[in-house]
Amino acid sequence: MHVSYGVDQFRRLPNAVVTSGTFDGVHLGHQKILTRLREVAETTGGASVVITFFPHPRMVVSADSKELKLLSTLDEKIALLAQQGVDHLLVIPFTRDFSLLTSEEFIQNILIETIGTKTLVIGYDHRFGRNREGSFEYLSANADRYGFQIEEIPRQDLEHVAISSTQIRAALLAGRVQQAAQFLGRNYTLTGMVVKGRQLGRTIGYPTANLEIHEDYKLVPALGIYAVRVRWRGHVLGGMLSIGTNPTVGGIGRTVEVYLFDFSQDIYGEKLTLEFVDWMRAEEKYDGLPALIEQLKRDEVKAREILGL
Question: Is 0.85 surpassed by the pTM of this model?
């Protein structure tokens, strides 16, 4: 997949089959659109093009911009789109000035002049341009003038629930990682760097890797204890993860700590990717370390069972 960062980097194509959107998480609903995009491109002998935006538009123009957490970082989204077989990705920097573009300006400047769109594939109720004024109806009414075809993908449901990034975020914030996985078509992931923590885990037989998440806009699931798979240097390890405040030992602030099964290497400064398999329990405060240790033993048994280890 060829990635262009900004319209100046994009080279106009002779037969571009295009879709656009934020594609946060690249969930099953998005994948339906991308599948159709590839099908049309193959049928017409064209090249598939995805237009996306960074930062997320809501992070620029919405009142809740600081509260919004995303399912994928830009790098993760690029990797996920590449896995979907997209030929070209145009990442447009989303600014306040860009948000003021009318739908007509977006069509003329981006779709026609920059990309050379011959077919536009859009999802159900997709809107674009200032105040979201552009719509399928608007495009269809002006198709002859624009010189490209328009196809709308019907709204897709999963088990009678419309798939949306908002619903996936809500599921993760409630600890429902298996439901999120159903909507995403894969387990949710979180990547961080191993940094030094308080190192209390090693004193009770459960040394943990304390993760620092660099992208503050990336969604961290609900507080609790999870069974996880962990990717490290091409290896996949099993583990149990704590997202919480460590109330039993007087913790302050949220930490993300993973105990890796059957593993003893020094990995400070290394990057780990957590794959959320299942939520096991809520975080609790125990009456001293012995009670905490006993609970951790039970958690390990349960996590190994979930992971098939």
Answer: yes
